[in-house]
## 1
Amino acid sequence: MTMTGDRLTDGRTADAGFGSRPAISTATVGDYIELFKPRVMSLVIFTALVGMVVSNGHVNPVIGFAALVAIAIGAGASGALNMWWDADIDAKMSRTQGRPIPAGRVAPDEALALGLSLSIGSVAFLGLITNLFAAAFLAFTIFFYAVIYSMWLKRATAQNIVIGGAAGAFPPMVAEAAVTGGVSAQTAVLFLIIFLWTPPHFWALALNKSDDYGRAGIPMLPNVAGPDATRRQILIYTLLLVPCGLLPFALGVGGVAYAVVAAVSGAAMLAFAIQVFVRRTGEAATRAAQHLFGFSILYLLLLFATLLAERTLGLGGQGAALADMLGGVLPLRVL
Amino acid sequence: MADDEPTGIVLTPEERKRRRARNIAIGLALGALALLFYVVTVAKIGVNILNRPL
């Protein structure tokens, strides 16, 4: 029998891994791009760019661009490692069973090799073009997402996305580290905003996907503590998030335009969270969670886009009163 | 078995097309990286690129 004889008529072998494993790769370029979680990557690039811009450091534009590429590749690599590790639970959830590994289009070993090699490559590249601290910070971020969050917290505790959210909040600080060699309150406050934004964002999704998470055995808050406790936690985190959204203005990172955008969009974010808290049953509850999930993305985008626009147009830093007041007390540069 | 009969795995036209697309994507990615490394090297060295013994 020739090797062609082992193959089924559709080009797949009968040996099933995740789905049926192809005899040879049938993956498209898009499948490999999907491994990198491009939507998460675009958020990482965007927040890192804002971190770089607000850092008050000076960097050659070519080096700045290359640093962003390194951070983006690191984010993509950690996405591939996450997909490799989570392939078994991804196969059980309707939202994720079409991903390249559970669908059988990419072999798990390929994703692991790609994730590891790009992780090492991106860290080495960032270290060579900027500094060792930035490289170590990027390595820690990849480790935090792939190991601390994916391998440990995600399946162990209902606080998984609270602590794991730090991984998604680090990129502005990594970008600042690449520019200045340290981190400061300028980007620490951006970290805080993304960190507090993550729980209401993901729990709004988890409220409507609790069956999915339950099937996969992931201890998301709605499955462990129940929907009502989740709605309370969403409201608490949103109440913490909205005033923190104004901190960049108080610290002089953002200007008046930022303060207006943060106040108005923060009020809207709080209104959506209250809707989720109040509407607890039926279609109204589902829609309220969907609206909060959708608006939360817009909220973060608005805050960071306004900071970027202000800095680009030279309008930022007009709200530095608190920063001046604290100047002698609070060292803005902590490293 | 005739001499001209193919042996081993024979790719279908769709598999050939996808392999070709993957090859092109890898080529473009490597080319972009090479260009990035070159531009970064010039940016890092800066004006000193001309400061060398002749």
Note: The mean pLDDT of chain B is 85.
## 2
Amino acid sequence: MNDAVVWLTIFVLSVFVGIEVIAKVSSTLHTPLMSGANAIHGIILLGAILVTGTTENTLALVVGLVAIVLAAVNMVGGFVVTDRMLQMFVRRKRPAKVEPGATEGGVR
Amino acid sequence: MTAVPVWAQLVYLACAVGFILALKGLSGPRTARTGNLVGAAAAVIACVVPFFYVDLDHVVLILVAIAVGTVGGVVGARRVQMTQMPQMVALFNGVGGGAAALVALLELHEILEQPGGVDVVGWFVLVATAFTIFVGSVSFAGSVITFAKLQELMSSAPLVFPGLAIVFGASLVAGVGLATQLALSPAMWVGIVLALVGLLFGALLVLPVGGADVPIVISLLNAFTGLTVAAGGYVLDNVVLLVAGTLVGASGTFLTLLMARAMGRSVSNILFGALKGGSTLGAGVASDRPVRSAGPEDVAIMLAYADRVIIVPGYGLAVAQAQHTLRELVDVLGERGAQVDYAIHPVAGRMPGHMNVLLAEAQVPYEQLKEMDDINGDFKDADVVLVVGANDVVNPAAKTTPGAPIYGMPILNADEAKQVVFMKRSMRPGFAGIENELLFEDNTTLLFGDAKDSMGKLLNAVKAL
């Protein structure tokens, strides 16, 4: 099979999987799902590491390092923030307990 | 680039499966948190792999950069208020898109430098490179503007200037032209100009979108970044990027359509409505028409002797951090024998599902949170509907005024209740920037003031009865 066709096959199948796995999501979870998907594309960090680690040009190195920082913010921040949101859903069964850190200073 | 050894390919495959399981998990309430952790684990593993098979230079610098980004991400994610979640997601999405565009520019540089030059790679790789540069830049600029709108660094009203449609069209044409140029005779300057045009296009795409529709745009840009990463994966010959990016692109697009349906809007209407000159109602000025206002004691009496109360919470509640006091009030009313529920509009807050997160944070029991379709039939039996910091989601203009920015959006039927009480800070209109006729009805009472302050007074007044 032609190389490009292999890639195309993977792409098309992934499209269907991507739609199928989230097809039944309830509107309650739209926000965390969006945030989680957002974190997953932070995997561009892997790409940034590959190009930065193989370059010999100084300017390219600098640009690559910037890309790594941005991608790491996307990936790590995305997963942490999603987890924070989802914690709220899990904790709801327990008796009332006010968490100071989560409620202070919210008024802008 | 080094050929990928079989073991690494297998690890990549496992990571790709991890991402599928992550999305699957995230779409169910019980599995969501595990799903997210699976996704995080897969991402970390995938990023560690290249250190073991590629002869990487600058490893120390790379690790420092990762550490800087990680600290930035964790601090941002920990510090952000739950109310500011939408703009945080927008920002994370933007930096991801920006990173993808930079990676593609570097890869273009690499392709041009390598022995044999451009002929080694096919034109298809160059097209994918151009796509990544352009769409990544669009995503970056679009997300930054979105962030600025939600953070209120700039006006959230649709921003349209004469000739915007022409500049918008021209930048798209320029983008396609430059991408073609890049595929036919690649050069570094073409890539850089393409990125700049992408930034312009991204900004112009988001500027005309009104505040209430911004969440849909975040979701769409999220899907864009996913596709960007997928194309980047093809360029870099890396299958895990391709799969992860495509998954996000596909599910993100689908999620965007789901959200738009929940708001009764079409995506093209959201993006291009203002360009067509549709939503001009968003004046955003306070009205001086007469309304009926009351003090906390009066409202307390209404609530205390009601049998059926429905609470309509909105973003204003969360901004004032009044959700804990509200929960106390509901508890007290419940003890007095009233049946009290929260009616959650799908887009209450600023993103679909946002209000559920905010109320869950305030320990509101899950059973009291009723989705719109389940509770809309109950409003006609409700003695009092208490609207706290919400406006657009109960605005009858969505049903009655064709041409209103929110026309066609399903709303909560608060107008059918016997009494409606609005807790509002001022007469300023809601996020969509239009006036709410319900405020001027005879059976509507307004309780002005900061939601937390009024809610506290209301609670004390009810307790005193």
Note: The helical segments of chain A are 3-22, 30-40, 44-53, 58-91, 100-103.
## 3
Amino acid sequence: MKTVSRVYTALMLVFLFAPIAILLFFSFNEGKSLSVFSGFSLKWYQELFRDRDTLTAVKNTLVLACTASVVSTVMGTAAAVGISRLRSKHLRGVMDTVTNIPMVNPDIITGISLMMMFVFIGSFFGMRTSLSFYTMLIAHITFCLPYVILQVLPKLEQMDPSLPEAAMDLGCTPLRAFFKVELPEIMPGIVTGLIMAFTMSLDDFVISYFTQGNGFQTLPIRIYSMTKKTVTPKMYALATIIFFVILALLLVSNIPDREQDGAAKRKNK
Amino acid sequence: MSRGLTRLRRGERTVKALTLSPYSLWAVLFILVPLLFIAYYAFTDNGFNFTTENIARFFTATSNVTNDAGEAVQVRTYLLIFWRSLKLALISTAICLLLGYPLAYAIARSGARAQKTMITLIMIPMWMNFLIRTYAWMTILQDTGIFNGLLGMLGLGPVHIIGTEGAIVIGMVYDYFPYMIMPLYSIMAKMDGALLEAARDLGCNALGVLRRVILPLSVPGIISGVTMVLIPSISTFYISQKLGSGKFFLIGDAIEGQYVANNLHFAAAIAFVMMVVLLAAMALMRRLTGRRFYGGAK
């Protein structure tokens, strides 16, 4: 039984990592091919670092992901605090349903629904295009918010409600009680929410694709336009770098530790 | 005392108002209103006059295709596309579940250290850009690709995979497999090992334990995993373009195609129908499963 499950696990890992291994391997190809290896070379890495569009896209992606994750974490944490205090079952149900919408809706629906609204409002004001960095930012904050809320809310509910009450009895103002007592209690949830929001934003293609505009390109959109033409090992070089960055981040932050229960709520992407 | 209490209550109300209002406003403006815009676009023409034309077109538009026997037949274009999306998404989800269930179980039953490593390993591909992952599969499955090269070494093949529905299924399974593992694993990791032992002590064989204890307890994980694989696979448009060589249009391709062609109203109509079907399916699923749950697996 043990051997069977070991062999099976190993086979599944091969399935998951074979394409990545191939991708890593061919990023060092000397030739242009992605399936015939003609010799080792680092030239595609050099090409990559000379590719201005890609470098700009990396910068854009980071700016967008940082802004979106910070804004959604602040707003989402506040919302979770409010939601946890709702006494009315009905209101609570409404909030939960609304929060769930961006998570259960296919990305393509979230994307085009926002795009249609932006386009409509833009044309209402006679703008040629209303899509820009800001529309994309709004879209990213919107799909990141539920992840933050769903990370913070359980932490608030696990907390002993008499803790902040005790702090207030001892003379804390409600605001001080929140920052001194509640916030440290729910910090793990906030941090996980922030990390999840950041990675969701970093990796999103579909919603960004529909809400992009004015030449603001993120890395996934840049990759999409690269795959529209003939792909050279340059894209694999990019993928290899992404792979090692992810690996380093995972090893350093040991995210799976915290992510385990959060992962259950993750969607596609 | 009573004055203090009133002040506290009032303070509580202020806290609620201050913390909830930014998010509520945001949710209305950027979650609810945009959905209304889909309905608005779906039921209007280019001049924003009311019409049911777009919805009607979804159900009635026809096109000519050649069937397997080489005869030209007329089909309902978008109904066929919708059916194909549903079929491929269901097949992919079923494969993910069948492959993922034993894997999640094997991980959950291994030691704490091994669990952590395995989950990290499974998450890594998930964090790689899915466009690149899909593209890698395209080069692997090509007629002259690595897969056929390996088959050739074994004296087999070559098989033509790229540009078939099978290739699309492979892509969906690969891309969304981790979404199935995660919820299954987190349910199984919480399962009490003593329960399984008790079932065995009471005379269940391995199959009995699986059927009577493990499966019922993991139902919430299964539902969550199935939803998380089904929804992205039913609405994808990149996988079908690359691995299906653009020959097998899915519902996502139809929406994206209309968007690119700047036919926003018809794109909205397709999205609207898809949304209604998905909502109905989810309501049905909740109704069917909601009653049968035990609290145990929470």
Note: Confidence is low (pLDDT under 50) at residues 291-298 of chain B.
## 4
Amino acid sequence: MQIKWAALAETAGVSLAVTLAVVAVFALGNLALSRREAAVEAGTGKGVPALVAAGVCFAACAAVVLYGISLIAAK
Amino acid sequence: MEIRRIGNSRATHGTPTPRPVNLPFTKASYGRPGQQRQSDHFDDCLGMEHITFLVAVVIITALAFDFTNGFHDTANAMATSIATGALKPKVAVAIAAVLNFAGAFLSVKVATTISGGIVNEKAGLQPSIIFAALVGAILWNLLTWLRGLPSSSSHALYGGLIGATVVGVGFGGVNFTTVVSKILIPAVASPIIAGLASWGATKLAYLITRGAPSTEKGFRRGQMFSSSLISLAHGTNDAQKTMGIITLTLISAGQLHKGDGPPTWVIVSAGLAIALGTYMGGWRIIRSMGSGLADIRPPQGFASETAAATVILTSSHMGYGLSTTQVCSGGIMGAGLGGPSGKLRWGMVRRMVSTWGLTLPAAAVVSGVAALVAEQGDWGVAVVGVALVLGAGSMWLISRRQPVHAGNVNDSDTATVDIPVTAGPTGQTTIAA
């Protein structure tokens, strides 16, 4: 019986890395939004940099999701 | 439910014309005496009426399996979204249903094998074996639903195929090496990987957003996307399985050419069956997965769904067969352990894991018996059909005693939160009732 342990390990590794990356980036986006709200409420600014950062984070997540859908559709 | 493309031929939606030559799955090739086909007039064939009855039964049963597959697996995508309040129960199942239906059309590649090499299909799979396999899979799906336990619909189908093949063909008809490398190893590895990824992602999410107020709202929004992605992937993979079964049965009956893709009506009906099943919402399973394993907050729900979606898509891409159910449950377990309380209801974990282990052999035994009876001819098929209807009907009646629906699916939250949660099997067994 031949079991491709390398492919299995690769699948596991990629899954782990992508999950951690997506959730981390999404959490950073949330953090940025939260900072922006805090800044607006405190009147210390409009929180534009935080909003931009959040936008970048969510765009990155959206890109990963689109790639995922393309993987489903391409097969 | 398995997420692996089990075929790679391109769909062609042409109208098939019956052409009985070179059809390896036709009745004549089963080697039954007196039914050798000699003419192109297929309908003149002696066995035609029998085939037509059996084919009709197999198609209906395949759609019924598709339906149970749908409502059994709604929980995979939507359980934590419903539990965290990211989506209202009715809205969640509606989204899941639409995406499952859309998923059925997303991919133009179809299943050219039903089993992915688990049973030897070269000699052709007899419709009676497919029928018996479906019966075992449906009954196991319903039984586990009744008990509120998520179990793999694909494993049930594979178990059914193995059991029916052993009875109909013998042990030589099953490729046990493939069973180990394509089912057993991914079955053990995938929930662990999903759980590990989800655990790490949960820790990371809480670490990054610590001290920041009102981030739960954002994670709830994220859950809408992550659970939708799981629904879409589920529709693509599982609806195709039913399409494959119906298509191969039609080929075996001479209604389609070998290598043909599924006709449009097969795609639409398989998509509709899984979408309807999904919309029914297996509320018992949603309750077990959403609030029976752990108390899930939005960051945990997002982490577990992202982990599950990633593992499903990665494995699908790498050609591994794995169970969406087990991956999603593993993800929720990891998120429960990684969350602020770090608590998991181990009683429920134990029940789920033992159900996963039982799924394949249990479905195999039921299907083996069904195959034994169904092979006796039309009356045998009818007996198995009646047994299926009676079994399914009685389980539905039992479920009416303690109905779980959209209105009370989250109620066990309050019921179980009051009880001090200890790492023991006591006190939690009512969740899935």
Note: The CA atoms of residues 12 and 83 of chain B lie 42 Å apart.
